[in-house]
Design a protein that fits this description.
Blueprint (H helix, E strand, L loop, with lengths): L1 H27 L13 E7 L3 H12 L6 E8 L5 H11 L3 E6 L9 H11 L4 E6 L2 E3 L4 H6 L8 E3 L2 E3 L6 H22 L11 E4 H6 L15 H7 L5 E3 L7 E3 L5 H13 L6 H26 L4 H25 L9 H21 L7
Parallel strand pairs: 1-2, 1-4, 2-3, 6-9, 7-10
Antiparallel strand pairs: 4-8, 5-10, 6-8
Helix pairs in contact: 1-6, 1-10, 1-11, 2-3, 6-12, 9-12, 10-11, 10-12
């Protein structure tokens, strides 16, 4: 019995090794990117529902972008606070701001995808750049950096949506590590020609890609997934690329309580069951092997079965994972979270298990 567990443990580490060395290294060891401005007209699209405080911070930063030709499409999704008034105020001040007002619709009530669809149709330009109302661009070169990765063939650009650093907060490190791991996964698979998701905090695509797949129609009834489910359906090797220049990042405020972050992760994870079968399997295998890597050695060490070999394998796994993730963290400016890597990884793995168990018994809450 113990021999079988040991053999399974070895298989688990081999699978993890293949993920890190074959898949994740595609991003971790990728060459630094440079921005060659394309000077193509861009429509920046922001959808907001009850985000009065956040949009007051975001809009001035969008207006100040160093880019020759762009518009800002502000979508008010039937807000009940002062969001619409803020949008109208800035629309009067800037000629390149377009306001889209979404009224409550019985068929699509509270559905962000419906609001986004109206904004996409109202956009003047063909190249669309998305961010969320609670995000801010990392630099005045955000539009330049993201749009620079467009080519004739590459019409979908996956960007990085980072979370702000909070000094002295261990929860903040956990959140940023989980975001780093997720980005390493979707960037790496995109580089391998198997893109499967992106984040609405920082995402760009040509409008024709939206209409090729009938927009969000195939998953309109699923409240979440305006970013990852769309990319899972529309993205392929030929039309998708990534952008990871620091100037291209967006930043948003992270949750400050474990309960709020847990609720957020429930929403995010709930869409994964609608991914393509290959993507569900590759994500499932990775997370199952992560969990087994933590559980199997405990049994082996309790019974002192090949404990020297077990400890050596554990050490080997942490070394290659630490190196690969360390390079990825360097690219995404998240190096500080790697100092806590073993501990944070354990917390994230068991949190994900808890999210999965909780989501099987109740549905998460989505768009406000």
């Amino acid at each position: 019995m113990l021999l079988s567990i040991f053999c399974l443990f070895v298989v688990v580490v081999v699978v993890q090794f293949l993920y890190y060395i074959v898949v994740f290294s595609k991003f971790s060891f990728a060459k630094p990117q440079t921005a060659t401005p394309k000077r193509i007209p861009v429509s920046v699209i922001v959808c907001a529902k009850n985000e009065e405080e956040n949009v007051r911070l975001l809009i001035p930063l969008l207006v100040e972008q160093n880019y020759p030709q762009f518009e800002i499409v502000l979508i008010d999704d039937a807000s009940s606070d002062g969001t619409l008034e803020v949008f109208e105020e800035y629309e009067k001040l800037h000629s390149n701001i377009k306001l889209v007002k979404v009224e409550n619709n019985e068929a699509f009530w509270g559905n962000k995808k419906y609001a986004l669809t109206l904004g996409i149709k109202a956009a003047k330009y063909e190249y669309l750049l998305f961010t969320d109302a609670d995000c801010v661009p990392a630099s005045k070169e955000w539009i330049t950096s993201m749009s620079s990765q467009f080519t004739v063939e590459k019409t979908i650009v996956l960007g990085y949506g980072a979370y702000e650093k909070i000094a002295g907060s261990f929860l903040n490190k956990i959140i940023r590590f989980e975001t780093l791991l997720s980005a390493t996964q979707y960037f790496s698979w995109a580089k391998l020609g198997k893109p499967y998701m992106g984040v609405g905090r920082n995402l760009a695509y040509k409008r024709e890609e939206f209409f090729k797949v009938r927009g969000f129609m195939d998953h309109m009834k699923i409240r979440s997934g305006d970013d990852d489910l769309f990319i899972n359906q529309a993205a392929e090797a030929k039309n998708t690329t990534v952008c990871y220049m620091p100037e291209s990042f967006t930043h948003s405020r992270p949750k400050t309580s474990f309960k709020d972050w847990f609720t957020q992760k429930r929403r995010h994870v709930s869409t994964a069951k609608h991914y393509k079968i290959f993507d569900q399997n590759q994500l499932g295998i990775f997370y199952v092997t992560q969990l087994l890597f933590l559980l199997l050695p405990i049994v082996l060490l309790i019974f002192q079965f090949q404990w020297i070999a077990v400890l050596s394998i554990i050490g080997f796994r942490y070394i290659f994972a630490w190196i690969i993730m360390g390079f990825a963290a360097g690219k995404l400016k998240e190096k500080d979270v790697m100092y806590w890597f073993p501990i944070i990884e354990i917390i994230v793995v068991f949190t994900q298990l808890n999210v999965f168990i909780t989501n099987t018994s109740s549905k998460p809450v989505h768009w406000k």
